Amino acid sequence: MSLKRNNWILSIAILILGWTTIFFLQNSIEKTYRRKLQERLVEEMMYFPSGKFLKPVLMEYQDLGADLVWLRSIQYYGYHLMTDRRYEWLGHIFETLTRLDPFFIAAYHFGSITLAWDARQPTPAIKLLRTGTKDNPLSWQLPFDIGFIYYSLLNDFDAAGYYFLIASKLPGAWNVLSRWSAFAFERAGKNEISRQIWTDIYNQTNNQAIKALAERNLALIQADEDIAVLQAAVKKYRTAFGKYPPNLYELLKIGYVKYLPKDPWGGLYVLKDSIVFSPKANRLRSGK
Amino acid sequence: MKILAIVENTFKEAVRDRLLIVLLVIGFIAIASAKIIKPLALGEETKIIKDLGLATITITSVLVAILVGGRLVYKEIEKRTIYIMLAKPVHRFQFIIGKYLGLLLVIFFTMTVMTGGFYLMLYITSTPATYSLLLAIVLSFFELSIITAIALFFSTIATPITASLFTFIIYFISNFTRDLKATAQISPSVIVKGLCNFFYYLLPNLSNFNIRNLVVHNEIINSTTIFLSIIYAVVYSALILCLASIIFQKKDF
Amino acid sequence: MEVAVKTENLYKYYYTGFFTRKIKALENLNLEVNAGEIFGFLGPNGAGKTTTLKILVGLCKPNQGRVWIFDQLSTYVKTRERIGFLPEAPYFYDHLTAEEFLSFCAQLHKLKNRKTAIDSILNLVGLEPARKKPLRFFSRGMLQRIGIGQALISDPELIILDEPMGGLDPIGRKEIRDVIIGLKEKGKTIFFSTHILPDVEMLCDRVGILINGKLVTTGALNKILSESVENIELTIKGLPPEAIVRLQRNTQKTFVAEDKVIFSVSNEEEANFLLQKTQELGGKLVSFIPRRKTLEDHFIREVAKESKTQ
Predict the structure, then answer these.
(1) CB < 8 Å to A15, chain B
(2) Do the Cβ atoms of B182 and A37 come closer than 8 Å?
(3) pLDDT tens string C151-181
């Protein structure tokens, strides 16, 4: 009966029209918020005064709550990694998360690495890790992370060596740790040690974000070394010819360098005034 | 109007249901317990009393919607009281709308009663009551209009326990749809993006209606957002009711 | 003559067991009920009577075929304004009182003078004293009566009743019968389904017999039960035993009671012969009863016939 068919068509039309309206309404609602979704999600967590208060509210479901916060922290981090690289809330998120679930080692680990290297906040990172060691005295990962931050970012080699030593004594630690402790105390080649550590971190972790971060840092170390080599060649030229070379290709022609390395992102190094630098690396470093 | 007759009948039936009284009592106890919290709260009592009050009002009403609403249509079908009604010159969709509005009236009644208790508690504990508290409650009501529609929808196709369960699951998940959207935004996989977005627009975004957080911290609320959210609730509920009517129309008894 | 109900090629199937088995509830049903008559719808349990009634009032949809109520297609909700329906073993909102329930039904019909309608119905079904009583306290008989009440509240032209006498005691049944007769006198059409054949014999103008979803008989009651007499029963008193033995040979059946004997003969001639003999032999006639074919006989025969063709 055509009445039946008409009814069906009408019903389906109403449903499609309805859901399209919903689609547009929801988007409009989103637009009325001044701040991005990720920011709002994280800001909300700011209103939980402390994990102390949240815990009894969540009762049995603290772990679920911690998982949700973990998810939101990754969403927040991922979003800012792709856009402006500004991580104002990162410290707070991980503080909340680790109060909710103080035994969540991965949270301390990921939180401190991203805080230290991406958000350039080594001190809060170390604070986070120290809080972690109180609840997880047997975890080697945490003092190791502290040590690495001291070593790589803060250039406090004694502190680094100290923490590497503590870590090496804890169950399950990488056996290279005692070696690195020694290197730290000796102030042996910093880049070499850092490179080794990043490579190890890259190989050991399952966390894709950390892997990516390790790769980035390895690339930066490589860039530093290449630049140092090029810079030394520039200096040699200056000493030899009394002026700076017009470009890096000159150095290749003369034979001061065997080859011109590309920067780790495939771009070229340039010589500006007397300084060798890589435009790409600088951009990445400054976050623009 | 015939729909009004059904609304009145549904309301009467639900109000005489003992379950409603039980839920109301539990709700009151919860609100009253705020008084005991004072010494434990370390100076945050105001926030806690407001939080607890608003949350209780919403949760009690949600329970009413899910438990009473889940049974509503099924009971009629099972008890065959529906035979009398549908044999009368009443359209099937009038039945659905009547039941929905009746249940919504019950929710309105529940929320009003609980709000009364809440304001009483505010008065007793000398907590200042702001206009925005009322706004939060009103938005909560619209959130509930969606849940009620969903509960009614499930009650036309499933037994009460299943209907209540599904409604509750959807209620729970729909509070976290923003996380779905956030995941969709950062995920590189097209499939994940697609799925997350699909569910984000399919499920009701109940976080639109949750301004409790903002209210408790006395933040400014954008009136456009509120206006759009209310329209969203109306459209969404209407859509669910359409769906329920279509299914109900096809049913044989 | 106006036709109150007309069905055309009505089919209804059910699928069971995950859509594997198809059960035919109604098969090619073509039924007509004339306005102003009382139509009895008979059939064994599970024949499809209730299904038919449900299709008429829109509770069910047929897989094939159409239905007209007073020349309007039954798919239109408006047709139900002229129908009053009482389902089998009905159940009502037990939180309502009789009065509230009737008021609700009246509202669904958009009746203008609700109060007068409610009063008259309560009087009609004899429930005036139970007006303010919640339905959950009603007995089976009272429920049946309030059920009839809600069916009649809008003063419908067609009244459809599914097993209206179900579970009632003889007084209840008589009351319902009286109501039905009263309705007919007002010119209403009544269409009811039942198992209770004596009621049908007493009330109906026309009947239909439904067996396994098929309408096997339909028509005026009188026509179905043939005019011809099945047999004649003579009850005779005071015959000496030898006489009884001798007369037995002329009869179909003989039944001897204390002081009476009942002879069953197949036609009037044999009956007259017996009467003569009785007088000769000094007996006295107590009763002379021609027995027509009963509806029960016909019914049982049709069922047997149908089961043979299965």
Answers:
(1) 239, 242-243
(2) yes
(3) 999 999 999 999 888 778 888 888 888 889 9
Is A257 in a helix, a strand, or coil?
coil
Give the C-alpha separation, A167 to A172, whole Å.
9
Identify which of B12, B13, B88 has the shortest CB distance to residue C105: B88
Contacts of C91 in chain B (CB under 8 A): 79-81
Establish if A64 belongs to a structural domain: no
> Tens of pLDDT along C127-145?
888 889 888 888 888 888 8
Of A92, A171, A106, A192, residue with least CA distance to A145:
A106
Of B13, B81, B89, the CB nearest to C109: B89
- At B110-139, the pLDDT tens digits run 999 999 888 888 888 777 777 778 888 899
pLDDT confidence of residue A280: 67
Render pLDDT for A121-173 as a digit per residue (tens, 0 to 9).
Answer: 999 999 999 999 998 999 999 999 999 999 888 988 888 888 988 898 888 88
Chunk chain C into consecutive blocks of 10 residues (it has 310) and report each block's average pLDDT, rounded to whole numbers: 87 80 86 90 86 91 90 88 89 86 90 89 87 88 88 92 85 87 91 86 88 84 66 83 78 79 82 84 84 76 77
In this structure, what DSSP letter does residue C253 have? E
Domains held by chain A: number: 2
Task: For residue A263, give its domain range.
Answer: 224-288
Cβ-based contacts of B9 with chain C (< 8 Å): 93, 96, 104
- Where do the structural domains in chain B lie, given as residue ranges? 2-175+210-250
Q: In this complex, do C77 and B80 lie within 8 Å of one another by their Cβ atoms?
A: no
B·C CB contacts under 8 A:
66
**Alpha helix (H) ranges present in chain C?**
49-57, 98-108, 114-124, 140-152, 170-185, 197-203, 221-224, 241-248, 268-281, 295-309
Among all residues of chain B, which has the CA nearest to that of A48? B213
- Residue-wise DSSP of C197-213: HHHHHHH-SEEEEEETT
Mind telling me how many Å the CA of A4 is from chain B's nearest CA?
11
Q: What is the DSSP string of C99-126?
A: HHHHHHHHHHTT-S-HHHHHHHHHHHTT
pLDDT at A287: 43
Among the partner-chain residues B201, B217, B246, the one whose CB lies closest to the CB of A11 is B246
Identify all chain C residues contacting B84, using CB atoms and an 8 Å cutoff: 85, 87, 90, 92, 105, 150
Q: How far apart are CA B139 and CA B136, in angstroms?
A: 5
Q: Cβ of C109 and B81 within 8 Å?
A: no
Residues of B in contact with A23 (CB under 8 A): 201
Q: Is residue A156 part of a domain?
A: no
Q: φ and ψ at C235, to 5 degrees?
A: -105, 120
Chain B CB contacts of C85 under 8 Å are 83-84, 87
Q: Which tokens sit at C205?
A: 């103008």
DSSP A97-124: HHHH-TT-HHHHHHHHHIIIIIS--HHH
Determine contact, residues A60/A262, Cβ cutoff 8 Å.
no
- Name the neighbours of B, counting chains with at least 3 Cβ pairs within 8 A: A, C
8 A C-beta contact, residue C151 and residue C84: yes
Task: Please indicate if any CB of chain B lies within 8 Å of the CB of A37.
Answer: yes
Query: In one letter, which amino acid is B201?
Result: Y
**Given this model, what pLDDT does residue C21 score?**
78
- Which pTM value belongs to this model? 0.76
CB atoms within 10 A of CB A257: 19
pLDDT > 70? residue A57? no
CA distance A250 to A263: 18
The predicted complex's ipTM stands at: 0.81
Q: Please state, in angstroms and rounded to a whole number, the distance separating the CA atoms of residues B177 and B171.
A: 10
Q: Pick from C80, C93, C109: which is nearest to B9 by CB?
A: C93
Residue A266, in any domain of the structure: yes
